[in-house]
Amino acid sequence: MTELRKVPANAMSNDAGTTPALMLDVRHLPSFGFGHRSLMWWSTVCLMLIEGTVFAIAAMAYFYLRGLTANWPLNAAPPQLLWGTANTAILLASMWPNQLAKRAAERQQRARSRLWLCVALLFAAAFLVVRGFEFAALNVSWYTNAYGSVVWLLLGLHTTHLITDTVDTAVLTVLLFTGPFEGKRFVDVSENALYWYFVVLSWLPIYAVIYLAPRL
Question: What percentage of the chain carries pLDDT values higher than 70?
């Protein structure tokens, strides 16, 4: 634990000639922290709350539209489960390398952090490829009717968040390999993993709304 030392103010020049006071020496304190001690952590949590609210509003719109019609989906069969289920499995598996990257970052292990970030990037790329097939296999187009619009909205919102975090992960990976490197990059890696958990866990209710709700 870092020791706080009191340094007499008269150790420095005092042009005013005032009475010396005691000053706190904080030069040896760490310049960054993890978890709730980090401003980045609070920013990420607030961002997740805002974006989670957007997802919830979109899901409410889906069920509102469903309540206005006797037949749901409108003029379409329930969407196929193949690609959506495959993406769910990929996302759940991707939590493993992200957790290992987070753990390595909190131990300030640069080599292991960038290794697991690379693995996490592979999972993200695989998800985006499968998401392309998922869009292509949807049972309705976005302009067909209200059902199509709200389904594409839900998938589009989640895809946007996934692309954003994939780009962020790629930038962090490059910085860990090339620099400029600062200790606070470990905090960035840790909070990037936290946001990835949000992307993964927010997909589970969206998957249920899009793929399971029409079958109930």
Answer: 81
